[in-house]
Amino acid sequence: MVKLPERLFVTGTDTAVGKTLVAAMLVAGLDGYYWKPVQSGSDEGTDTAWIREKTGLSADRFFREAYCLKGFMSPHAAAALENVAVDLSTIRMPDLNAGSHLVMEGAGGIMVPLGDRCLVLDMIKRLGAPVVLVSRSTLGTINHTLLSLEKLKAEGIDIVGVVMNGPKNESNRKAIEHFGKVRILAEVEPMKEINFGTLKGGFEKSFGSSD
What SS3 state is found at 192? Predict the structure, then answer.
């Protein structure tokens, strides 16, 4: 089994790479809690609501967003439309007992702006949690993943490893491991159904049993 820290920040190489799916899998597999500090696109639904629906977990497993923005766009643009200034000093990690797992999820990739003066990267640094980087398995992923890893390392951020989402691609996996000098934590293949059982089963298959 992969030994995972009690606090994890799930970020990605881009938008729509599978961060929320991986976060849901981690919550189900680790019997954990979920928090998305900054959400945009809430008019079309939130990631918190999606994970709660798919896992069936109770409301006390989910923490309210620090900023929940309506527009389906980059957080900085959505915030500007609502005349909201994202202030990192107001974003504080929920307090949980030792032994409990908290899975946090970012918005888009690490260089996505949250406002005029801060990026997702700055939020990661403020929260101080180790990072799980989610990437696509398909063509183009090597460049995006290596660039993201390089920036995270340059900023001194602890990287737990990479999760590749999509059909298995051995060549891309080996290239990211070799050039990124990083551990591939899991390869998450497409799921026909998404519910607590399949998420937990996917965790055990990809990451190993949580026992």
Answer: coil
Residue partners of 64: CB distance under 8 A and separation at least 6: 48
Which residues are tagged catalytic?
Answer: 36
- Of the candidates 23, 32, 57, 30, which has an alpha carbon nearest to the alpha carbon of residue 211? 30
**pTM of this prediction exceeds 0.85:** yes
Q: Are 194 and 51 in contact (CB under 8 A)?
A: no
Question: Residue range 44-73: average pLDDT?
Answer: 97
How far apart (Å, rounded) are the C-alpha atoms in residues 56 and 187? Answer: 24
Helix, strand or coil, per DSSP, at residue 64: coil
| String of DSSP letters for 103-169 | EEEEEEETT-BSSSS-BHHHHHHHHT--EEEEEESSTTHHHHHHHHHHHHHHTT--EEEEEEESS--
In whole angstroms, what is the distance from residue 39 CA to residue 45 CA? 10
The amino acid at residue 104 is M
Query: Which pairing describes strands 7-12 and 131-136: parallel, antiparallel, or unpaired?
Result: parallel
